[in-house]
Every structure is written in structure tokens, then in C-alpha cells.
């Protein structure tokens, strides 16, 4: 399996080993746009792998801080209590860059930047760049993806449209508009 993410389309494509589209999910990438530098608040581009999977068995909406579950489950009351928190919910797929000098090592290391695919509150929009660098997904979507992909799965993040894939049926579309328009 492999994952292609298009920052322009704000979509994640899950592909099988032959390149056939299995699922398509709406995402939200960095509000600051694409970029690889540490402390930029940008989403890194290029080839990555899933280095670690965190949160197996946690309930939908479980809160993670510093990659550890807090024992809390997200709610509007909890959000009001911690209004400045960048919510990381349900599951984490932690990315590691594969391109030395571009998204690996030095001042551009995706793993040291703590770049994840992770769940977010349902009130956060998908299809619109709003994150602090990570790839946000709906909680049910990140849980489904988490269950389908092993560590070591390739993830390629494209600034523009991802390479074409075979057509998909409407049953495989999860909150993402076909044709790549933003939410």
C-alpha cells in the first residue's frame, strides 16, 4: 500500500500495491502552506514513510499530548477549558522523511518536526489548509486509515495534484470532492 497526499486538492489517496485507488479522504494541511524547514508551520513535501503508529485501541476522540493519551476524550467543554490547544485526537501516524537534505535530517527533518497524520475535532473544516504543519483528518477516517496501513507504508506529499489514479466509485469517497476543488 501507499499514500498520496495532494496539498492543492486537500485530499489523501490510499492506493494498493498496483496503484489502484482504495479510498480517498478529505484532509487539512498547513495554513502556512508547503515547506520543509523546522518551525515554519508548513507541511513538508516529498517522500515519507509511516515511522510509528500511535493510539491503537483508543476511543474515537481520545486526546493525545506529546504522543501519549491523556485519558480525556474531546468534548466542547474540554475545548473551552483549553482554548489554545492544537488538538491531536484518536490516532497518530508519525511521518519520517526519506529525502536527505529535503525532508530528512538537519533543519528540515519531518520526524523531528513531529509531522503526523492525526484526528482533529469535528468542528475543524476539511478541504481547507488550517493545520500547524500536520495533516489533519476526521477521527473516523484516521482510525480507518490507521487500521489499513502498516508501519513502513510510503507516503508521498505533493504540492499540486497527486498523479492520476483509476476512477473510484462514490462508495470510496469520504468527504472529499472529486475534481480536486477545495472544501
Could you characterize what this model shows?
This protein has helices spanning 76-81, 139-148; strands at 2-6, 11-15, 21-26, 46-54, 62-65, 68-73, 89-97, 116-119, 135-137, 154-158, 173-174. By secondary structure, the chain is mainly beta. It has one domain: Beta Barrel (L,D-transpeptidase catalytic domain-like), CATH 2.40.440. The chain has a nine-stranded mixed sheet, with helices on one face. It is globular and about 45 Å long. The two termini are 26 Å apart. Mean pLDDT is 91; it is low at 177-183.
In short:
The chain has two helices and eleven strands; from the N terminus they run ββββββαβββαββ.
Search tags:
single chain; 183 residues; mainly beta; L,D-transpeptidase catalytic domain-like; nine-stranded mixed beta sheet; two-stranded antiparallel ribbon; 9% helix; 32% strand; disordered C terminus
